[in-house]
Amino acid sequence: MDHKTYCNHFRRTVRERRALMEQAGQYREARAQKPAAKPGVSWNCTRGHAWDDALSVTQNVRCMNCASQRRELETQRLREFAALRGGALLSECYVDAHTPLRWQCAFGHAWEARADAIEREWCLDCVRERVYDGVSSVQRG
């Protein structure tokens, strides 16, 4: 790849990123900065939070204020989900989709599982001991 081809590819990539940013509604024009500094980009989220970041991180731009609010809401949702099952979320807070959380069922069994797995299956100890079989047969009858 010669220099001209590389530069054209880079320009196209930057144009595509800018189009994605504008589409997401989170892009503001770059502010004038010191000549020696890396060119920065100013961002706005849909809730009005503003921050500056480099163009190189545009593939994973997220508002940190909104992210912390989403984590709090997700923690609350998971606590309510555990309460519906008669259990509890023992972990302090939701971190991300890949981090296991600590759970406890109504019968005192404690285990660690990711949030997406907990919605598919609850307490494996209760499943092995067939604790819920009596409950389900009463509901069926």
What does this structure look like?
This protein is of the alpha+beta class. The chain folds into 2 domains: 60 residues, no CATH class; 72 residues, no CATH class. Helices cover 44% and strands 16% of the residues. The protein has 5 helices and 6 strands, in the order αβββαβββααα. The strands form 2 sheets. The chain has a 3-stranded antiparallel β-sheet with strand order 1-2-3. A 3-stranded antiparallel β-sheet has the order 4-5-6. The longest helix is centred in the first third of the chain and has 22 residues. The C terminus is likely disordered.
Share in helix: 40-55%
Using only C-alpha atoms, the radius of gyration works out to 24 Å
Give the overall silhouette.
Answer: elongated
* Number of helices in the DSSP assignment: 5
Placed side by side, the strands forming the largest sheet appear as: 1-2-3
By DSSP, the count of extended strands is: 6
Which keywords apply here?
141 residues; alpha+beta; three-stranded antiparallel β-sheet; 6 strands; 44% helix; 16% strand; elongated; disordered C terminus
Question: Can you give me a brief rundown of this structure?
Answer:
The chain is an alpha+beta fold. The protein has helices at residues 3-24, 64-84, 115-118, 124-128, 131-140, and strands at 27-28, 40-44, 50-54, 88-89, 101-104, 110-113.
How are the SSEs ordered, and which strands pair?
Layout: H1 3-24, E1 27-28, E2 40-44, E3 50-54, H2 64-84, E4 88-89, E5 101-104, E6 110-113, H3 115-118, H4 124-128, H5 131-140
